[in-house]
Structures are given as structure tokens and as C-alpha cells.
Specification:
The protein is α/β, with parallel strands linked by helices and 195 residues long. It has 2 domains: 104 residues, Double Stranded RNA Binding Domain; 76 residues, SHC Adaptor Protein (2-Layer Sandwich). The chain has 4 helices and 9 strands. α1 runs parallel beside α2.
Length: 195
């Protein structure tokens, strides 16, 4: 496992590096195929000092399709590292439990994923009206991530694992980009594009 530890707006000390590495090595008890752990420690100029020391972590593993992310902010970098290490460990542990549970359940049973499909047509475009120019929302953050083909039930597990509202993935059945999302009734919806 390789650690990449970076600092923004601060002098990164060996003590901070060692502490972050020590706290995050605990996740290896759940997965031994962790390739890389990226840690970014930063200090933000903020009026709220209790959230000015930030630690962001991304874990890359062979057995997990997409990276696991965690972020924490507090008034102390060591406390932020502790908080994010706990978050990452919970996510990795949850994923490991799902994997072992899925392997146990798959013996002799055939599970089938159920989901609703939403297809957008021309009527969707006509329903979306442009807001006035000065009130237009702006893209304030963007990111990239590696995408590997997966089935919709696996994407639902990823959505659940990362505790997100939606998840973009490459559908292994159709070779198209799909979006799976959490519905208000607790089920999942699947958006499949028509070209």
C-alpha cells in the first residue's frame, strides 16, 4: 500500500505524515488489496476556526470498483485525521460486510435486482425552463473518477456503500452510462439514456 500525503497552505511535518499513515493503516485489516491512499491536509482561511483544518482521504483498492472518499474539518489537523480515519474505516468495514454477506447469500439462491427505469424524451426538455441569466446556477465543483463496467445491482451496492443520492456507472449489460438513484420510498431508480 502506497501513501501519498500532500499539504495545502501548511508546512507538512513528518509528525503529521506519520500520524496520518498510522491512523489509516488500520483499514488493511479489512482489505489487503489496497493500492493507494491519498491524503490531503489543508488549512483554510475561515471565520469559523472550528472547521479550518481539513483532511481529505481517497482510498484506491483492487477489490473495490470505485474509490472510497472521506473528508473532515475541525480546529485541529490531528482531530480531522482521527475523524476521517473513522469515516473511512466504517465505509471499508461496511463494504467488506456486504461482500461477505453477498457471497454467503449467493450460494444456491438467485437474486434478481428490481428497479424502475426513467427514460427522458423530448417532453423533459420542454418542461425545463431557463432561469433568468443572473440567477443561473454555476458549476462550483467537478471531478473525475475511473469507471469500470458493472451491473445495476452492483451499482446499487456502491450507491448504498458511499451513502450517496445517486451513482453514475457504465452498465455492463448495455455498455451505456447509467445513473442509479435513491427514491424517497427507499427503493432505487435507474436512468437509462436513449441515443
Amino acid at each position: 500500500m502506497q501513501f501519498v500525503i500532500k499539504g495545502k497552505n501548511l508546512q507538512l511535518t513528518d509528525a503529521l505524515k506519520d500520524y496520518a499513515e498510522k491512523k489509516l493503516t488500520t483499514i488493511t485489516k479489512y482489505f489487503d488489496h489496497i493500492v493507494e491512499v491519498d491524503v490531503t491536509l489543508s488549512v483554510k482561511d475561515s471565520k469559523d476556526i472550528s472547521r479550518s483544518r481539513v483532511c481529505e482521504v481517497t482510498v484506491w483498492a483492487k477489490s473495490i470498483g470505485n474509490p472510497i472518499h472521506g473528508k473532515a474539518a475541525s480546529e485541529d489537523l490531528y482531530a480531522s485525521i482521527d475523524i476521517v480515519a473513522e469515516k473511512i474505516e466504517r465505509q471499508v468495514k461496511k463494504f467488506k460486510e456486504k461482500i461477505t454477506g453477498r457471497r454467503r447469500n449467493s450460494k444456491g439462491t438467485d437474486k434478481q435486482a428490481t428497479h424502475s427505469v426513467l427514460s427522458f424524451g423530448e417532453d423533459f426538455a420542454s418542461r425545463t425552463e431557463q432561469a433568468p441569466e443572473d440567477n443561473q446556477p454555476k458549476i462550483v465543483r467537478s471531478g473525475t473518477f475511473p469507471m469500470r463496467p458493472m451491473f445495476s445491482d452492483e451499482a446499487a451496492e456502491q450507491l448504498d456503500l458511499f451513502n450517496q443520492d445517486f451513482f453514475v456507472f457504465s452498465n455492463a449489460e448495455t455498455n451505456k452510462i447509467n445513473v442509479i438513484y435513491r427514491r424517497s420510498d427507499g427503493n432505487f431508480g435507474l436512468i437509462e439514456p436513449e441515443y
